[in-house]
């Protein structure tokens, strides 16, 4: 008869981390007995376990053939009282090792008194893991002939330490448990010895010791582990029973040197589409789950940190325990109105049982430089360009050679400047710093995790700094987190999570976008940075980048966010029903923000020449003051959440049933409203439920619902019901499957369908059922003593029928595992949005109103596929792993109430959201004859060198009716990432690539298309345009840029395929090399582990587009660039 030992989840004994107690144990199986008086002890242990919902750990042989009276169990007594009564006459004693976990042992058999050679080895499937472990050693056997001490460290495939791993000498009971840092030390006999490393959820590994004194081991995940759990909506579920589309990423993959967590997501997870539109210090990324599914007000996912809606960017990567995204209806329906765009679940770290605190420290120093800056025309290129567009019939030019030479020689930079504004205003390299310190510990009653972190990043701009005046761009963030868990009783747990994030950012006196425009548009010869006599230089028209950078003041932004979460969990297994738990949680978050603006505006001058003495002739073109003005503004919010739930999870033979019923209420208040709409609190209320069922761990059912109320709609439409259903079939659990496909350890099919809502109606709009009243027009009464009266009229009429935007989602998934090493997951999804909240455009004139109404008329579809693959290989001192993922989606606008165009090819419906429309370029006009023989272009007169467009409708004219859908969207339809990692002894190396495809953008603006107007002061162009444009001296019909001119050229500024560029790219997103100092060295300093590493982010990019970083959302590169970072650091564990 075989028994099943209930596996203890990752944890520790009070004296020290025991970790996984019965890694290879089996389940207790009920066996009937025909004798009425006595029954097997195992049967009664099973009854006690089920009744009190505890874990029992014991060696098989100590309970064999022991029979006891069934009357030993008293229903009214506690578990421990019943256990004492049951074991009283057996010679077996119990020990409580942690909450709801007990070990049975036979005191009459003293393992420590047995000679080593007489201790039998347990079979591989029934090896004792926990008996007699009172202090550090798991089995304290005297070290007979133990003349060698072996030390080492145990980690998983991702390099994360594994505390509690069992390390035993094969064929003996000698062993230890790895400590909280994954380190172990074990005395072994000399000679040929084999060590066995085992851990629940991981494949056991045997290693021959040989002559080694230090042995580091990597354990590989065991895909067969049925008890592995993943974080899902409002709780956890066993991984094998999941039928929804859920993807996750290891927290270690998010530990990259970036200012915001959202910047670390690109390419990391199947289903995430991420775009970082700016590299400004402190800025984050925009991202979507499975692309954009609605053209309504809100497409952003719901972010939940420890179950509470919060900002992802306030979480330090070091504090993350798990990171998952929920993508389909089965996974998100319980969130009702908040789940339509997918959900990100972040769980922060908790305290652990440990005999002493574990201290982890990490420090990084980073060096940053732009990925790719636009290259602007130098002085010679620009003067040649200006000469070309100013050429007249007499052959005269504004910059003849002798004038050009004055600018190029640098003899008089006041009057003849030659300035590289990029180098003048930007640094070549800037810096960042990151520091994290966290402490983990706890005992049987309380466990804690405390963390503090600091991040600093200096900006790219290079202003002149003095002790009293510092306009530098920089960002600082301080984060504190404390997670405390207390066992009030053996069935009651209280958790208190506190965090605070303080951020401050210093900015220039001018807006960042304005600053970039000034740099990008000011020619190199326009003005000197400053005059030699110290005067502030400023052109009569336009701006001086140096003055804007150094002499306009600066701003400082401050954010302080305090978050608290209290949670109480009561296990009702002993009192009501086994497997039943009650939880209530309350959170209170407050954000206070302020901006301090310090401005100055010194007098500026413009030099027109030199007098007889050589002194500059300056003309003041603006009065000003060197004194700083001061202005402050304040903002703040408060958010509370109340949530209570009942959960149930229990097994009955081949059947497992789970359930959830939950109530939730959320309130958001703007403490500094700028209008009466914002002054009202925002409130949501709802209930949710889930029912799960599993049969023999191969057939799965998952039913969910959310029922939510929103204030935005009239009472008759205020509440919505959003159900979903999911089914799964693990065919690899069938008996025939293993015989047919022995290499396949997992093959699972799953599918889901459901409805989810979205109540976001955009901007400050609220209470859509009410009409808006606004001032409109005026009238002056009387001829004497006239009185001016403003009128009031209806703005947007209210709509009492407006309701939820509804997402109908279908998902079909497939998972396969091969050789316990290769994992593959593929999901196909199809989503339709109905009732998208839009402003009605097709209002007939007979209605008699000239304002539009908001209605639920919009429709949109989105479908695609995403998947991931993982492979790991462990042998000896080597660990090799590879992973990859991809996400592809294509959306389509079905209906948006736009007016029906004359030509069907201009219809927005049927096209992708954000589809670009424009003319189709046919190159450049080659000659006058070419122009005369082509359709007439209605965008001003054209000459050779101008862009030639295709006549789409064939009417002989090229006009707005010839605009069609061109290229792709500005949001990538394809996102992917793949990486490799290797570890050999103390060395580790990893690299991760990220890429996007099916994304285009139309570039334009003065630096690309040629400026008009005051070209001498704001007429800069790209160096690429200066070199490759069509000109009188380069009449190349295949030139990359068309003719440029002083006059406004409407034809060449049309959105068209000529300027549309493929913005696809692949980049080395992250690369890291590290070295872990041997324990034999660091242990002398009482250090558990020490690792040095170098890391690079955005190291290089491969793309067809070369002018600037293709990820930037910029028409001519006029946005703060993304940065590539090289950092060095160290991580230290005590």
Give me the count of strands.
Answer: 56
Mean of all residue-level pLDDT scores: 85
- CATH hierarchy, class of the domain at 39-218: Mainly Beta
The named CATH superfamily of the domain at 39-218: Carboxypeptidase-like, regulatory domain
Count of helix runs: 15
Indicate the CATH architecture of the domain at 39-218: Sandwich
Q: What structural class is derived from the secondary structure elements?
A: mainly beta
Distance between the termini: 45 Å
CATH topology of the domain at 39-218: Immunoglobulin-like
Key features?
43% strand, 15 helices, Immunoglobulin-like, 56 strands, mainly beta, Ferric Hydroxamate Uptake Protein, Chain A, domain 1, five-stranded mixed sheet, 22-stranded antiparallel barrel, 1134 residues, disordered N terminus
Describe the structure.
The chain has 1134 residues and is mainly β. Among the domains are: 39-218, Immunoglobulin-like, CATH 2.60.40; 229-348, Ferric Hydroxamate Uptake Protein, Chain A, domain 1. The protein is 9% helix and 43% strand. It has 15 helices and 56 strands. The chain has a 22-stranded antiparallel β-barrel. The chain has a five-stranded mixed beta sheet with strand order 15-20-21-18-19, with no helix packed on it. Helix 1 (41-52) runs antiparallel to helix 2. It is globular.
